[in-house]
């Protein structure tokens, strides 16, 4: 078994020469070039331990000396040794908190968790001496600062605040009291004059190490703070980067004589829980963080100073002054359009203003555009201004044209614009049920006009796109409606779909594929989807964000980006990589605003706040936003794989309540595609029904059926309605078996087991897209953990529970709904929706095999017998033979097959079984004799689940690891 | 999670409030006792990391069932604890040698029959670190136990069954006749928590416990020769023996509740019971207050 891929908590990050990032990814040391994102080397350093810290000595990569530590172990190596994998693991005998080189690089000082410093001779790799200040209390954190005249030790205790002592004379210099609770993070300034600290009390404190006084305090994190980094040091001033359990990194500014450590910026670039590590690239002004999600992200700490960065605002008085125009007392800037290089705005008194190169000018005043006007435009720079009467001003570069949009009756209510292949389209809507008018504008004049019948009933246009090749038009409306006009016929009649996604207003539509009209649809109320609408509407992809309002979305380099408002901020979010790219406090969504995305930074946001027009343009990016993408930010509870034309699709369900769909490549790499947020509670199980469908289950009785589309999209297809009005039970596991009708697959049976001991069988019909409850029963009073369906001459339900029992039921035929014969199930009657459903027909076997919970089992059926392998919380395994005909279960139990809970059991082939256990071991056993064939340590803690994908084994827990295996 | 939804989900939490236990962990000790008869013929008992005191409550109620008991129970914690009948509470540090003297003084110089610890650290979520700190906490309790326990005495402590728990099993095997990993049914199956039950204390021959403040827990055990790795001149990685302790599930299947199961409430709960012991002030109390008042500014 060979590890080929891992993703999990990133616990160590160190910047070297302001150019390279050394990252601890599990036991692997990975080196990146920061500005290009290029990975230079990835090498395992420790056999078991995760890397918790890295120090680098030297002035050049090729002559650098590295000191890497994790747990009780240490590695000292030269760059060449890292490249060659020539690494010795050394032992310090206690958990290392920090290690730093002496100024000449000859000695490494290691501070361990009992407040002792161990000095090591780097060249000879030998112990020099150990020193302590006499107080050997346990530390959560500590840091060393090697100064020209001394080595300073800062120790963060559990109960007694911070102990600062000098290595040279072993004397305590300061006892810094002020924090409440355990100290979790410490960092000194380079000159050793200042110390910053954080603790369980969620504050950050700055201490003067000369006087021992607390000089400043900062508050802001909503949860525990884990680490701090001091940067941008000047005389009496510096900045701090902090990382927290609240998923954010924050920056702070300290200035001597200010008692407040001032909060500056907030970055949210991880998911799940905890940002474990961080580093600052001081010269480039970049903050780098590593999360529990395994992601390493780069935040620009100096974004506002980058090329192109603008952050400015104009009051109406300032605009008046610049333009020389006089504004009425009640006059406001009502509408504007950003062409990407200039802003055209209309006021409530008919003034048209232009902002170009930071200067406002008055373009014209036209009283026809008082009170109501709409300002829209195109990427080409052409801007349109319309009023209710259909007067349309076309503003080009230095010239103005005018058009009249004629209505039989009624007035204009909305105008939308789209630029496609350089062509300019306008969609105009009337207040009445008059047809929509689609105009194309070229060289400032209308070159074509089409009438599109307005869909009957409630319809108010909110977004549209045009497919230039076919002339098809996709229009989104309020009231969650989508209308599609195909071809060129006049007047075009729409196909209309209402409530195809949850929510109200469609905020944006973008056609992705011409032939099929594959379209990205974003709904204001957090939902988004990809639909195909050339024929019948087909939902390919559905998902939602958890907070805020979505105003739009677009694809860039294969990543989906979404933007909108969340409380008082505007955000831009990379949905594929799961990180926030922009956060701007603007006061919230109920205001005039305009957003245009850039490609490499250069995002433009205009918004009105307190009647001032604000402009924020982000500076050019100097480094990629992610050096490595992550996966789940909390424990993965279940994993399943399904073969595709290019490898496998991997589905993972996690404690973080998300279901992730990723691509598992042939070489074992995991490339995230979607992070589905439909579940409201931590996941329990995910399994495939077949190559198109999979099911997930969680607490609150949630059982969700998902459909995969085109090997790249996933949509929530159907959910099972909870049986109780206030569902409290967890759906622990389920199993599916396909059901035929007239010789063809018509649906499947789904057996689900619950934490209140319920067992339910549902029939799902593909045609009707419904779940019908066909059998319902209660096993005992304990929690049922796993279930499998076996179909022979009858439907059998095999289940395992927390009482250590394996139970076998004959399920019956659902009161004549099914015909079971020769290992197949046929649907012979329509399952009714009934208040009373049959119980399981008969409990055949209920036998205790394990002392406590059977955490997992797998079975293989051969004729009328099944081989069942179980793994338990009692560290034991059992191999059983279940004879369905004779109704007999014979079992061989082996105790202590692991030193902790066996969490998953997966049969691989006829005579091997693979297990995962919380002792972080993956083992392969021969069955039925249960002989250990091979075992492999995994870096994934809380090891909880596994699945096979060809010759790959995917192991999930607090992270995910992929092994190649010979089977 | 609100009080009442926890009531519905967690049967032991609910039961603890109804029966007057300060924490649901009381049932864990009751079930351990049910299995191992831990409280038979014990006179001097030490409960370490005792706050809020549910284990001391159990010890007090069970040991003093027959009124003529001459037993003595000492409960030690850094946090203050509300008084419990027949229990002497000590607010003290278990790593401090003076704590040992105080306990021995209470016992009139006699040694203890039973030492237990239900202590857990500030769990961070980093599994390797949390497991290491928990192991250190067990060693801390064990250090005091080796000074306090009479030959043949019993030691019970909470453990996290992680990747290195087999090291601890092996090392405890040098000090006790029998080392068992016990999981009461009151402890959730999804939790890594279990309890190490060490029966029949065998002091190491030729080794005298020497509780000095300048020795770390690690150093205290160094010369005990129980197979713990240590720091060498050449920094070599010691081989450390790993052993799997036998597993015992505690709590009768038929009579005890399953902490993983969801139970419907027997009666309609119209109001939720308050916890027996309100939680103490958390270190982040001020941060919470600031948040409520909108003073935690972000950007």
From TrEMBL, chain A:
Subcellular location(s) of the protein: Cytoplasm
WD repeat coordinates: 176-217
Principal location class: cytoplasm
Name this polypeptide is given: Uncharacterized protein
Keywords: Cytoplasm, Repeat, tRNA processing, WD repeat
GO terms under cellular component: endosome
Organism: Ogataea parapolymorpha (strain ATCC 26012 / BCRC 20466 / JCM 22074 / NRRL Y-7560 / DL-1) (Yeast)
PANTHER family: WD REPEAT PROTEIN, WD REPEAT-CONTAINING PROTEIN 6
Family: Belongs to the WD repeat WDR6 family.
SMART domains from the UniProt entry: WD40 (SM00320)
UniProt GO molecular function: enzyme regulator activity
GO biological process, one term: endocytic recycling
Keyword presence, Repeat: yes
Gene3D superfamilies linked to this entry: YVTN repeat-like/Quinoprotein amine dehydrogenase
TrEMBL record, chain B:
E.C. code: 2.1.1.205
Location relative to the cell: Cytoplasm
Main location: cytoplasm
Gene Ontology MF terms: tRNA (cytidine(32)-2'-O)-methyltransferase activity; tRNA (guanosine(34)-2'-O)-methyltransferase activity; tRNA 2'-O-methyltransferase activity
Residues where S-adenosyl-L-methionine binds: 53, 55, 77, 93, 118
InterPro entries tied to this protein: RNA_methyltr_E_TRM7 (IPR028590), RNA_methyltr_RlmE (IPR050082), RNA_MeTrfase_FtsJ_dom (IPR002877), rRNA-MeTfrase_E (IPR015507), SAM-dependent_MTases_sf (IPR029063)
An annotated GO BP: wobble position ribose methylation
Active site: 158 (proton acceptor)
Keywords per UniProt: Cytoplasm, Methyltransferase, S-adenosyl-L-methionine, Transferase, tRNA processing
One Pfam family here: FtsJ
Residue ranges occupied by any Ribosomal RNA methyltransferase FtsJ domain in the UniProt entry: 21-201
Keyword Iron among record annotations: no
Gene Ontology CC terms: cytoplasm
Reaction equations catalysed: cytidine(32)/guanosine(34) in tRNA + 2 S-adenosyl-L-methionine = 2'-O-methylcytidine(32)/2'-O-methylguanosine(34) in tRNA + 2 S-adenosyl-L-homocysteine + 2 H(+)
Family stated for the protein in its record: Belongs to the class I-like SAM-binding methyltransferase superfamily. RNA methyltransferase RlmE family. TRM7 subfamily.
Protein's job: Methylates the 2'-O-ribose of nucleotides at positions 32 and 34 of the tRNA anticodon loop of substrate tRNAs.
Name of this chain's protein: Putative tRNA (cytidine(32)/guanosine(34)-2'-O)-methyltransferase
Native species: Ogataea parapolymorpha (strain ATCC 26012 / BCRC 20466 / JCM 22074 / NRRL Y-7560 / DL-1)
């Amino acid at each position: 078994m060979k590890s080929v891929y891992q993703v999990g908590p990133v616990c160590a990050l160190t910047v070297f020469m302001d150019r390279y990032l050394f990252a601890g990814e599990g036991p692997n040391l990975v080196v990146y070039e920061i500005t290009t994102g290029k990975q230079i080397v990835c090498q395992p350093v420790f056999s078991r331990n995760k890397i918790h810290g890295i120090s680098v000595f030297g002035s050049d990569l090729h002559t650098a000396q590295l000191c890497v530590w994790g747990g009780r172990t240490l590695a000292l190596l030269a760059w060449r040794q890292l490249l060659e994998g020539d690494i010795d693991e050394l032992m310090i005998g206690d958990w290392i908190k920090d290690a730093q080189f002496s100024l000449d690089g000859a000695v490494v000082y290691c501070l361990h968790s009992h407040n002792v410093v161990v000095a090591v001779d780097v060249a000879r790799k030998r112990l020099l001496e150990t020193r302590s200040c006499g107080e050997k209390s346990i530390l959560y954190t500590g840091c060393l600062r090697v100064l020209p005249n001394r080595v300073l030790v800062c120790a963060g205790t559990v109960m007694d605040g911070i102990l600062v002592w000098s290595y040279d004379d072993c004397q305590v210099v300061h006892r810094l009291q002020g924090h409440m609770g355990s100290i979790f993070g410490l960092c000194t300034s380079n000159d050793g004059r200042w110390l910053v600290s954080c603790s369980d009390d969620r504050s950050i404190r700055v201490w003067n190490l000369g006087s021992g006084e607390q000089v400043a305090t900062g508050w802001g994190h909503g949860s525990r703070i884990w680490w701090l980094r001091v940067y941008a040091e000047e005389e009496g001033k510096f900045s701090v980067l902090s990382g927290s359990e609240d998923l954010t990194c924050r920056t702070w500014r300290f200035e001597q004589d200010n008692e407040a450590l001032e909060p500056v910026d907030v970055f949210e670039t991880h998911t799940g829980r905890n940002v474990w590590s961080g580093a600052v690239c001081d010269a480039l002004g970049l903050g780098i963080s590593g999360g529990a999600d395994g992601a390493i992200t780069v935040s620009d700490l100096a974004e506002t100073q980058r090329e192109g960065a603008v952050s400015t605002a104009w009051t109406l008085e300032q605009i008046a002054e610049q333009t020389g125009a006089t504004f009425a007392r009640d006059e406001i800037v009502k509408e504007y359009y950003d062409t990407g290089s200039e802003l055209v705005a209309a006021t409530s008194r008919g003034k048209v203003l232009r902002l170009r190169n930071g200067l406002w000018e008055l373009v014209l005043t036209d009283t026809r555009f008082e009170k109501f006007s709409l300002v829209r435009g195109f990427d080409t720079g052409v801007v349109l201004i319309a009023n209710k009467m259909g007067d349309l001003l076309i503003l080009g570069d230095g010239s103005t044209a005018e058009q009249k949009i004629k209505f039989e009756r009624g007035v204009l209510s909305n105008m939308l614009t789209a630029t496609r292949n350089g062509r300019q389209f306008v969609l105009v809507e009337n207040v009445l049920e008059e047809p929509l008018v689609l105009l194309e504008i070229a060289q400032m004049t209308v070159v074509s006009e089409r009438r599109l019948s307005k869909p009957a009933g409630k319809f108010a246009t909110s977004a549209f796109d045009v497919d230039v090749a076919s002339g098809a038009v996709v229009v989104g409306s309020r009231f969650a409606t989508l209308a599609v006009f195909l071809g060129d016929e006049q007047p075009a009649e729409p196909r209309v779909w209402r409530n195809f996604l949850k929510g109200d207003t469609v905020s944006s539509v973008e056609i992705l594929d011409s032939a099929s009209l594959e379209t990205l649809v974003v709904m204001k109320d957090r939902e988004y989807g990809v639909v195909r609408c050339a024929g019948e509407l087909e939902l390919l992809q559905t998902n939602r964000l958890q907070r805020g309002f979505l105003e739009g979305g677009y694809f860039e380099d294969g990543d989906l980006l979404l933007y909108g408002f969340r409380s008082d901020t505007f955000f831009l979010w990379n949905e594929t990589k799961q990180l926030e790219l922009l956060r701007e406090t603007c006061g919230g969504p109920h205001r005039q605003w305009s957003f245009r995305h850039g490609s490499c930074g250069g995002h433009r946001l205009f918004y009105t706040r307190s009647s001032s027009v604000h402009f924020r343009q982000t500076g050019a990016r100097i480094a990629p936003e992610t050096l490595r993408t992550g996966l789940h930010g909390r424990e993965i509870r279940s994993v399943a794989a399904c073969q595709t034309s290019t490898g496998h699709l991997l589905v993972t369900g996690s404690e973080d309540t998300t279901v992730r769909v990723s691509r598992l490549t042939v070489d074992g790499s995991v490339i995230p595609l979607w992070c589905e947020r439909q579940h409201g509670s931590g996941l329990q199980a995910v399994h495939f029904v077949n190559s198109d469908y999979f099911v997930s289950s969680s607490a609150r009785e949630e059982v969700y059926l998902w459909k995969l589309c085109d090997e790249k999209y996933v949509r929530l297809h159907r959910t099972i309605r909870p049986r109780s009005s206030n569902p409290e039970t967890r759906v622990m596991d389920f199993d599916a078996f396909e059901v035929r009708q007239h010789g063809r697959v018509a649906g499947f049976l789904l057996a689900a087991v619950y934490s209140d001991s319920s067992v339910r069988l549902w029939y799902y019909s593909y045609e009707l897209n419904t779940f019908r409850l066909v059998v319902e029963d209660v096993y005992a009073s304990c929690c049922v953990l796993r279930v499998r369906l076996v179909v022979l001459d009858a439907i059998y339900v095999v289940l395992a529970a927390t009482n250590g029992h394996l139970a076998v039921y004959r399920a019956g035929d659902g009161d004549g709904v099914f015909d079971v014969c020769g290992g197949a199930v046929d649907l012979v009657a329509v399952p009714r929706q009934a208040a009373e459903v049959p119980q399981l027909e008969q409990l055949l076997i209920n036998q205790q095999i394990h002392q406590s919970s059977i955490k997992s089992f797998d079975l293989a059926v051969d004729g009328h017998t099944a081989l069942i392998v179980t793994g338990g919380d009692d560290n034991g395994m059992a191999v059983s033979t279940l004879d369905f005909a004779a109704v007999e279960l014979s079992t061989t139990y082996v105790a202590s097959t692991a030193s902790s809970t066996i969490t998953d059991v997966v049969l691989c082939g006829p005579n091997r079984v693979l297990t995962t256990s919380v002792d972080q071991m993956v083992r392969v056993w021969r069955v039925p004799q249960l002989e250990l064939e091979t075992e492999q340590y995994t870096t994934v803690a809380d090891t909880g689940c596994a699945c096979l994908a060809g010759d790959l084994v995917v192991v999930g827990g607090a992270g995910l690891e992929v092994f190649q295996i010979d089977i | 999670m609100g009080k009442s939804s926890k009531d519905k989900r967690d049967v032991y939490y609910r039961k603890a409030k109804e029966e007057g236990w300060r924490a649901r962990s009381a049932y864990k000790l009751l079930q351990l006792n049910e299995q191992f008869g831990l409280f038979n013929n014990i006179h001097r008992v030490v409960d370490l990391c005792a706050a809020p005191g549910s284990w001391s409550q159990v010890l007090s109620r069970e040991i003093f069932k027959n009124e003529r008991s001459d037993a003595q129970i000492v409960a030690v914690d850094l946090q203050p604890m509300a008084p419990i009948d027949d229990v002497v509470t000590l607010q003290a540090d278990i790593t401090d040698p003076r704590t040992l003297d105080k306990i021995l003084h209470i016992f009139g110089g006699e040694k203890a029959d039973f030492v237990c610890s239900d202590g857990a650290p500030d769990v961070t979520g980093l599994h390797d670190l949390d497991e290491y700190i928990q192991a250190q906490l067990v060693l801390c309790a064990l250090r005091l136990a080796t000074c306090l326990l009479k030959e043949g005495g019993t030691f019970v402590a909470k453990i996290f069954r992680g990747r290195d728990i087999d090291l601890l099993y092996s090392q405890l095997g040098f000090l006790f006749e029998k080392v068992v990993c016990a999981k009461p049914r009151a402890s959730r199956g999804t939790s890594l928590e279990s309890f190490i039950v060490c029966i029949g204390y065998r002091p190491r021959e030729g080794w005298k416990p020497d509780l000095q403040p300048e020795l770390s827990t690690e150093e205290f055990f160094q010369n005990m020769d129980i197979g713990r790795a240590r720091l060498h001149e050449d920094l070599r990685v010691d081989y450390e023996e790993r052993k799997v302790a036998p597993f015992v599930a505690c709590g009768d299947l038929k009579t005890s509740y399953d902490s993983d199961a969801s139970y419907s409430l027997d009666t309609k709960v119209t109001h939720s019971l308050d916890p027996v012991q309100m939680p103490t002030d958390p270190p982040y109390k001020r941060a919470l207050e600031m948040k409520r008042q909108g003073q935690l500014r972000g950007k």
